[in-house]
Structure formats: structure tokens, C-alpha cells
Give the backbone structure.
Amino acid sequence: MLLGRALTIAGSDSGGGAGIQADLKTFQELHAYGMSAITAVTAQNTLGVQGVYPMSVEAVVQQIDAVGQDIGVDALKTGMLFSAEIIEAVADRIQHYGWRNVVVDPVMIAKGGAALLQTAAIQALKEYLIPLAWVITPNIPEAEALTGIKIGSMDQRKEACKRLIDLGAHHVIVKGGHEEGSTKVVDLLYDGEAFTEVETLRIETRHTHGTGCTFAAAITAELAKGKDLSDALSVAKEFIQAAISHPLGIGAGHGPTNHWAYRGLIPS
Ligand SMILES: Nc1ncnc2c1ncn2[C@@H]1O[C@H](COP(=O)(O)OP(=O)(O)O)[C@@H](O)[C@H]1O
Ligand SMILES: Cc1ncc(COP(=O)(O)O)c(N)n1
């Protein structure tokens, strides 16, 4: 079995459904060796975000260096980065180590509406981090915020993909989870030349806390094990579809997905 070394640079979700916790659970399920650099601690549960406590830039850099100088990284993902200062420091470390399998999930707002990225930091994402991305995985509101394009159609989504490639990303996946009112969910992949639509059945559920984190983490785990992006995306779609299809029923609000479901474990 090929063991990939996967690093997540993201925020902690005390409720365990999103952020670092979702990433590490996903890495483990997909047989990648999971490591983390925490950018912020959130007090969070299925009802919402009760508190956000960013780490110092120094603490974030030290965690990344601890991993980079000893263990090594085959692929990494970024999630909640909170501030322009943290984004600049993370980009600097990625360049320093020459890491190439970089999955940028441009987390901005929690599903309950809490800000996980300062508005002023969007420019830093575009300037410093997106150019280092092997793939960037925005949802529709994030793609709108990054490109200024209002997305109401597939053509507008394609236009947004082109803008993100122009910013320096190698590949873009604009996810379709937010496009409600259809029986299908379509994720759009663009490699700078061709578009690929990946379509699955939309599952009617309110338990979608952490879907974006889990999806990007599954791509990262597969890249870490040496898969190419197209194969990594196939696994990630199967992983997230299974995780959303069999929710755990935890908490009174928007519950987490089931990170065991891909391997067939459905707790009753
Ligand atoms: N209700 C759903 N049914 C099936 N797949 C979904 C559903 N909601 C989201 N997904 C999938 O989960 C992944 C994360 O998408 P999305 O929820 O849009 O991201 P985010 O969590 O960043 O808002 C995508 O692959 C998307 O297609
Ligand atoms: C610490 C942290 N990071 C990310 C998210 C986004 O969650 P989602 O994957 O549902 O967009 C979150 N709610 N909390």
C-alpha cells in the first residue's frame, strides 16, 4: 500500500464535522498519513460558530516548518486561513519547500453565515495563494467573490473558471452544492483547455456541514498517494456522495457527514 503524506493547513472545528477534523478523518479513511497546521481555533457545533480565535502567524509557520523540515509532504490542502497575514505566510512556506500538489479550498463563510476569512484577505488569496494551486475548489459564492462574476448559469461558471486560471491556478473545480432546486448536483472541472462536468444525484438533507472540506481533503489524500487529478476527483466524488448519503444524525442543526460511509460503515 502506498502511503501518502498529506498536510492540512486550516481551522479547527470543535464540533468535528468540518475544518482540520474533517480533513484528518478523510485522510485516515483514504489511507494517507494526516498532518495539520492549525490557523485558527473555532468554537463551533451543528448550530453555528460561537467563537473564532486565530493563531499567530508565527505559530502557523512553526507548525508548517515542523512538518516540512522532518516528515515531508506529498500533497497539502488549505482551508480556513482567516487573514491576509496568514495567507502570505502560508504561500511563502509552500514556495520555500517547493510543494506542488497544493489544493486550495478558499473557505470564506461557514454554512451558518459566520465569516471564516476577513474580507480584506480575498485579495491576498488571489495574489499569493491561487498562483500556487494545483487545484482550487471554490463553491459558487466563493467563485463569485474571487472573480466578481455573478453565477446563475453554467456559462457564467465557465467564465469564472477562466478568470481563476488567469490568476495562476492550474485547475479549477467550481462545486455545485449551492445550486439548489435541481435533482442533480454538478461540479465543473477546468484545466485551462477543457471543461468536464461531473454530475451526481442531489441528496436532500440538511446534514452538509463540512462537505467542502471533506471533498477537498479526499482529493488531497489521493494526490498524496500519487494519483492524478482526474482519478483523485473520481474518488472524492464517491467519498462525499457516500458521506452525505448516510448522515450520522448528530446535533440539533446542520450535522456532519459520515466519514466512515465510503468504506461501508453505517452506524445505526
Ligand atoms: N446535497 C448534495 N448532494 C450531493 N452532493 C452534494 C450535495 N451538497 C454538496 N455536494 C457535493 O459536496 C461537495 C462540496 O460542495 P459544496 O457543498 O458546494 O461545497 P462547500 O461545502 O464548500 O459549500 C461537492 O462535490 C458537491 O457536489
Ligand atoms: C474551521 C472550519 N473550516 C471550514 C468550514 C467550512 O465548512 P464547509 O466545508 O461546510 O464549507 C467550517 N465551518 N469551519
